[in-house]
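I would like you to sit down with the record closing this message with an eye to the fold:
=====
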Amino acid sequence: MISPAKAETLSGLLRERFGETLQDLIYDRGDVTAVLAPDDLLAVAVALRDEPAFSFKLLLDVSGVDYQTYGKADWTTHQATAGGFSRGVSKGVEDAENGAFPARFAVVYHLLSVQNNLRLRLKVFLPSDPPRLPTVSELWPSADWYEREAFDLFGILFEGHPDLRRLLTDYGFIGHPFRKDFPLEGYVEVRYDAEKQRVVYQPVSIENRTLVPRVIRNDVIKGH
C-alpha cells in the first residue's frame, strides 16, 4: 500500500514513460495497477526493473485470475456487504462472457521497489486460447514457481519458462482446479482397494451442491 501522494507521482512517471502502452492505470485501495497487453509485458517489465525512476527489483507474487462467473450469485440474500460472501453477486458487475472484461483470464504481478519505497501491480488480460504470455522468470527468478502454480491451477501457459510442470496437483492430474468451470468436487476420487492391495481411482461419488451460508436475522429476540 502506498500513499495517495506517492501513487500520483508513480502514476505520472508511468504515463510519461509508457504512454499509450498502458491500457489502463488505476489507483484503488492503496495500490496502483497498470494494465498491459501481453505483447508489451516484457519490454515494460525490463524498464520497470532497470530504470532508476522505478527500480522494481523484487517480484513478490504472480497469480492467475478467472473472470468467467465474476459477479454471478450462487444464492440470493436480502442483505450482504462487499466483504461478505465471496460467491455472492456485486451490483452492476457482469461476467467475462458478457464483455465486462477484455478476456476471461488475466495474470497479476506484484512488484516492490525497496530503493524508491514503491509498490506496483501489473495486470495482463489473456485473450488467446489457451491463455498464454511470455515468462518473466529470466527477469525475476522468483517467478519460476509462481508461474508453475498459475499453470497448474489455471492452465495458463508461460512461453519460455525453463521447467513448466505442475506444482501442486498429483501426477497424471487432469484439469486445472482454480478454473471456474472445474467442479468443486472434482472428477475422480481415490480409495484403498483391499482386494487389489493398492490405491485406486474411481469416478467421484460426492453430490455437487451449493452450500448456502447461515443467515443471521436482525429481528432475533435478545437472549435467545
